[in-house]
Amino acid sequence: MLQRHRPGVSAHAGCCPPPGLSRRGFLGASAAAGGLALNGLSWPLASAAETEFLAAPARTPLVVKPIFTYTIYTPRPQTSWRSWGGVQTQAAVNEEIPRIEGELKKLAAEADFPVRMLPLSSVRNAAEVAQIGDAKEADAILVYANDGGNALEGIRALGKPVVFFIRYRSGPVYLWYEIISPRYLRDHSDFPAKPGLGYDDVVVDDLNGVTWRLRALAGLKNTVGARIVALGGASGWACPKAPELSKDRLKLDIVNVSYDELGKLLKAAREDRETVALSKKLAAEYLAREGTTLETDLGFLERAFVLTRVLRDVLAAAGARMFTINSCMGTIMPISETTACMPLSILNDAGYLAFCESDFVVVPSGILLANIAGKPPFLNDPCYPHDQEITLAHCTAPRKNDGKTMDPARIMTHFESDYGAAPKVEMRMGQVVTNIIPDFLMEKWTGLRGEIIEVGFRPICRSQIDIKFKPDALHVCENMPGFHWMTIYGDYLNEVGYALKRTKIKWNNLG
Asked: CA–CA separation, 30 vs 21, rounded Å?
């Protein structure tokens, strides 16, 4: 598994405590599963220029070590003296190396995820692999598997995730195009014989296939060991042990912040004239953005920006870019005199990961999905699948769903309380989306591709979409564990499955 280097429940009807357990009992059981606490905070927590008000830390780059394996053959009379392949002479090697370096440069330049490519090394055997000094810096190895005898075993001994790229039509054909499955992956048997390596680690000709695998590994690197602040404690819808499962499966570092701490900070922030003035200014600028309309009291939105500033500063104090809030349907309202819906939306648009409900059944899937895609995910309540479609809704949603442009939004009240400020985001019709459906016990996540076919305005959570999918609706229903879903613009089913195979979580891809 890649290692990352680090620099309670809502009250509305769709998210109620499980039967037989009161809300107080449920929250108490959940809070006991929390991690480190962040105490003794005082205002101001951090100083930042206006332009840096919402500057989120960037994802950590995936460090990739490219290795080219080759063999130089010498003709011998009246015997088979060479294997398959078109790169077998020093002249051919000298032509192949700059070709590879050009592809690597292009891949790194065009990648939509952070990646740092180390210099290419060319090796003939395992002994030469062992002499590669910068391999220890790498998170993953990209092997141009041409030939090289036992070099592949030497690369496996490095203990890093490996992606094999093999040529057939993209250049001189490589030997491993013929034999990587029977001789290497299966080791002269009928079954996979290399722990940690699989058939999906091999790519033939398709550099886009290399890119999405590296994208998956970059997402996993930024997820394993990630630090997340849990306001009001870590919880789990119908699964109080979800926070502990998150720590076990993905090594999440959960930092608890109490509502008492938040209340003190928020009170001080609302008494700070500069903070209040800046919040009003930012609220006015937000409303001035194209496609934004206000349908609630302006004060709710202005106070939402005060809360956003406090939450941003708590994240900075904790050294985190990920946040979730417990009891967001009740406890936060009298403290902030608004709702958390807008701050979560604003933080997500700024590059943070911010989730309501502190539901660690689903939050880990949102962290992985966002770290893969580089876009904010939409945590939502799914309804019942029917006629190959399903409704997904929640009162908070990002607006910068493609990671770049703002979707239109009406700023309304939170639906169940008819209070505060919440975005009704008009997501993009026809947009392909990836949905992750996590199970309560974090044993197997299910993936479903869909397309947005309707953006409704029914009396349910404000941001609502209907998506169409290809599998039979009953089949989706039968493969729909847990409760909350994570949804994101784009198709990332391959990446999620590729990342999860390096964890304890299994993958069920419905397509």
From this structure: 12
- In which residue are the tokens 């939402």 written? 304
Q: By the 8 A CB rule, do 500 and 437 touch?
A: no
Give the angle subtended at the CA of 333 by the CAs of 327 and 334, to the nearest 5°: 115
Q: How many CB atoms lie within 10 A of CB 465?
A: 26
Which domains are assigned to the chain?
A: 13-59+222-509 (no CATH), 62-220 (3.40.50)
- Residue-wise pLDDT for 85-141, tens only, equals 999 999 999 999 999 999 999 999 999 999 999 999 999 999 999 999 999 999 999
Among the ranges given (19-33, 335-349, 409-423), the one the predictor scored with the smallest mean pLDDT = 19-33
Q: What secondary structure does DSSP assign to 458-509, as a single string?
A: -SS-SEEEEEE-SS-HHHHHHT--SS-EEEEES--HHHHHHHHTTSS-EEEE
- Phi then psi for residue 389, to 5 deg, are -150, 165
Long-range CB contact pairs, 175-184, < 8 A, 24+: 175/71, 175/83, 175/84, 175/85, 175/146, 175/147, 176/145, 176/146, 176/147, 176/152, 177/84, 177/204, 178/84, 180/145, 184/152
* N residues, the chain: 511
User: Cβ(485)–Cβ(380) under 8 Å?
Assistant: yes
Please state, in angstroms and rounded to a whole number, the distance separating the CA atoms of residues 288 and 161. 47
Helix (H, G, I), strand (E, B) or coil at 104: helix
For 437-484, how does the pLDDT look when each residue is reduced to its tens digit (9 = 90+)?
Answer: 999 999 999 999 999 999 999 999 999 999 999 999 999 999 999 999
pLDDT in tens, 49-68: 444 566 789 999 999 999 99
Among 214, 247, 481, residue whose Cα is nearest residue 364? 247
Residues 6 or more apart in contact with residue 297 via CB below 8 angstroms: none
51: CB partners within 8 A, 6+ apart: none
Identify the H or E element spanning 425.
strand 419-425
Q: Is 149 left (phi over 0), alpha (psi -120 to 50) or beta?
A: left
